[in-house]
Design brief:
Number of domains: 2
Structural class: mainly alpha
Number of strands: 5
Order of helices and strands: HEHEEEEHHHHHH
Distance between the termini: 22 Å
Low-confidence stretches: 197-206
Strand order of the largest sheet: 1-3-2
Oligomer: single chain
Helix content: 25-40%
Number of helices: 8
Mean pLDDT: 91
């Protein structure tokens, strides 16, 4: 499990692509999700019809949002396959629905297709280190849900994907202290966002 967490943290902080064994699953592509397309996604922009890209609200020029069709499907999904897979935006490359399985965040109401896939994931929690990590991940997610009112406004994202990612980013604080002070958590989140986290990858895409 620690290897997977390290990979997610690399995606959060360095935009490293996620290595997800999707095995043909396209649930995230069929879940009415907006995809954030950034200025670094020039290759993706070149392969997406301009009529499908809209300026991202509140973000500088060059940031776009790719929406979904009347079925909730990404318009680049053709015959249940991504038609621009080799050129897909970074938001898609870094998306990993296992963040919900690891943090215990239920997305059944928001993303039922993704939730069904999430229920299939199993982590190897054998060994004390893996169990500590698993407990810390779930504790961080619970804390963000239950103590969001004790943190500065806007600290905890409403979007479940962003909230799960944030829980993973700060889970190390919960390994030794299951109930850190809101002040400590707020400072840690601010510092980590300053280092690159929290770019609001639109519904984030996923």
């Amino acid at each position: 499990m620690s290897g997977w967490v390290a990979g997610v943290l690399a995606s959060i902080r360095d935009d490293a692509p996620a290595d997800v064994p999707c095995d043909g699953c396209t649930a995230c592509c069929r879940s009415s999700q907006f995809i954030h397309v950034t200025p670094d996604d020039a290759d993706a922009v070149a392969h997406i019809p301009s009529a499908l890209l809209f300026p991202a609200p509140g973000l500088p020029a060059g940031h776009y949002v790719l929406g979904y069709d009347e079925r909730g499907h990404c318009p680049m999904l053709v015959d249940d396959r991504c038609s621009i897979y080799e050129h897909r935006p970074n938001t898609c490359r870094t998306y990993d629905c296992r963040v919900f399985a690891a943090t215990g965040i239920d997305v059944t109401d928001e993303k039922p297709l993704v939730a069904a896939r999430v229920r299939e994931w199993r982590f190897d929690e054998s060994g004390p280190a893996a169990r500590r990590t698993a407990s810390a991940l779930e504790a961080a997610a619970r804390y963000l849900a239950e103590r969001s009112g004790d943190l500065p406004a806007g600290t905890v994202p409403v979007d479940p994907t962003q909230r799960a990612v944030l829980a993973i980013d700060v889970h190390d604080m919960f390994v030794t202290s299951p109930e850190p002070s809101p002040e400590t958590v707020a400072v840690a989140i601010t510092q980590r966002r300053a280092g690159g986290y929290g770019r609001d990858d639109a519904d984030a895409g996923a």
